Amino acid sequence: MFSIPDATEPRAKLADWLELKAISSPDGRVGFSTLVSASALAEEQQAQDIADEDIRDDNLVLSAQEEIERRRSTIRDDYPFRIDDTGRALEFVMPESNAGYVYLFCLFLSHACDRTIVPKSLAPNVTNEIRNLFQACATVAAGGYVEGPAVSFGFPRPDETGFLDALHRVYNLFGDGKPVGKPGPAATSRVKDNGIDIIAWRRPVDRLPTTMYLVGQVASGRNWEQKSVKADREHFHKYWFEKEPASQPTDAIFIPFSLEPEEPNDGTPYEDVLNDYMRYIGYRFGTVFYRDRIAHYVSKGLKLAAEGEKDIERVQDVEKVSEWVNNYTQRLRTARDRTESQAA
Questions:
Q1: How many CB atoms lie within 10 A of CB 53?
Q2: What is d(CA 285, CA 231) in angstroms, rounded to the nearest whole number?
Q3: Considering only CA atoms, which of 222, 269, 317 is closest in space to residue 66?
Q4: Which stretches in the chain have pLDDT values below 50?
Q5: CB pairs under 8 A, 24+ apart, for 326-331?
Q6: What are the tens digits of pLDDT across the range 209-228?
Q7: CATH number for the 1-94 domain, one of 1.10.10, 2.70.50, 1.10.8, 1.20.120?
Q8: SS3 241
Q9: H/E element holding 199?
Q10: pLDDT at 45
Q11: Which residues of the chain does CATH 1.10.10 include?
């Protein structure tokens, strides 16, 4: 049902394959040996030396386990998988939290257009409604990150306000920066959000300007590397404000994908590769909120909202994620049953 990524694919793909297999399996588990046997079948040529083959197999499993452990350490109790007591299998644990469902939501979205593992016939249909739902998750995660208000500014806005009205509402609430009273004579009347999807900030204790201030862009498609909020944010502040915010903005991008750096196969420790990769994309995109970080900070954002932070938007929409995830999970399991029935 799922294609096995070969050994040249990033280890994140191997971990994704195991997670998807565990979700769709009858008992919610998949043995790590399954990864080895599936990978061997995918190889066009078998290793000539048995010892070399054993080393390759061990490294394959170890890299996938390390990636799974890295995810678990970031997402903690909300991570919906665990390695069993024997260390031989990955087990799917039905989420007990919205953050766990958000992780699965991002996992499924990651493979909507990527044919490495999930065939087109099984890929989720990412509609505008689903993209909007991901923006809701990103907004709540932004609130969890700044520990304060987070506004879903991207079009279409939940309150259906026009651009300038929304701009004034947000910065009146923020209390830092003064938007223009009316558009310039050459400003397009069709401006929707000026490329800005999320605006979030930490409430200053003295209500004075300068505080943590995040300006983010949401990208749920595989072309996310062609986007960056930096240029849009600079234009946004320069053109649409009489007085720019004194708070220094943190540029950010929110993506549902895992981190997939290419490993040089020269013995460089993976943590070094991962650190360098984050520097590489961070200089271009700002703070990168990928799948694991989004799940982690969604948990924090939901907790803040439950404790009384009333200005984190889209909390109720995040609660809709579980229904979509459950429906898609059932679709995977039905497809598995059909495949096994045809093979019998």
A1: 15
A2: 10
A3: 269
A4: 41, 45, 47
A5: 328/108, 328/124, 329/23, 329/24, 329/104, 331/122
A6: 999 999 999 999 888 988 89
A7: 1.10.10
A8: strand
A9: strand 198-201
A10: 47
A11: 1-94
Residue-wise pLDDT for 110-140, tens only, equals 999 999 999 999 999 999 999 999 999 999 9
Measured distance between the N- and C-terminal CA atoms of the chain, rounded to whole angstroms: 14
What are the phi and psi torsion angles at 288 (to 5°)?
-100, 115
Enter the tokens of residue 140: 């709540």
**320-328 CB contacts, 8 Å cutoff, 24+ apart:** 320/133, 320/136, 321/98, 321/101, 321/102, 321/105, 321/133, 321/137, 322/95, 322/98, 322/101, 324/105, 324/130, 324/133, 325/95, 325/101, 325/104, 325/105, 325/108, 328/108, 328/124
One-letter amino acid at 282 equals: G
Measured between alpha carbons, how far is 71 from 106 in angstroms, rounded to an integer? 13
- Alpha-carbon gap, residue 95 to 111, rounded angstroms: 20
CA 326, chain centre distance (Å)? 18
